[in-house]
Amino acid sequence: MTTYRVAEAAALLGVSDDTLRRWVEAGRLTATSEGGRTVVPGPELAALAESLADHPDREQTRASSVSARNRLAGIVTRVVRDRVMAQVEMVCGPYRMVSLMSAEAADELGLEPGVRAIASVKSTNVVVERP
User: Fold this and answer.
1) pTM summary value
2) What pLDDT, in 10s, does the model give residues 63-99?
3) Start and end of every Mop domain (predicted)?
4) The 125-129 sheet, strands edge to edge
5) How far is Cα 57 from Cα 78, in angstroms, rounded to an integer?
6) Looking at CB atoms within 10 Å, which of 36, 41, 59, 69 has the fewest?
7) In terms of Cα–Cα distance, which of 47, 59, 63, 64 is closest to 10?
8) What whole-number distance in Å separates Cα of residue 68 and Cα of residue 64?
9) Could you report the per-residue pLDDT of 3-51, keeping only the tens digit for each?
10) How wide is the angle at C-alpha 75 spanned by C-alphas 42 and 70, nearest 5°?
């Protein structure tokens, strides 16, 4: 299972490290210790990212003041596959991104909820890559 250090998880959500730690202390997010460092399980982080994207208070995070450009780092929140195609949903800071790609490409990239990925946006196409 993919895990993220506090700083990585905070950056993916567009909040400060302190905010993420407060969420852990408040029970809003589960964290464990791995090699002496606090880590957050990827699927837990994906679930929180998805819930944050659905709430209007999302505009109050520091991510809303950052220029996104055309490469958006984020976390995969959902992957729906059939035999030919895959729909990949990501939360990149305050943005929800959806990409349609071949199921083979999604499998090769190892895309699943909780995995970090980068959405490269060109016009109406969204290309997803792993860092």
Assistant:
1) 0.56
2) 444 344 577 889 999 999 999 999 999 999 888 999 9
3) 65-130
4) 95-102, 85-92, 71-81, 116-122, 125-129
5) 22
6) 36
7) 63
8) 9
9) 999 999 999 888 889 999 999 999 999 999 988 999 999 999 999 988 8
10) 165
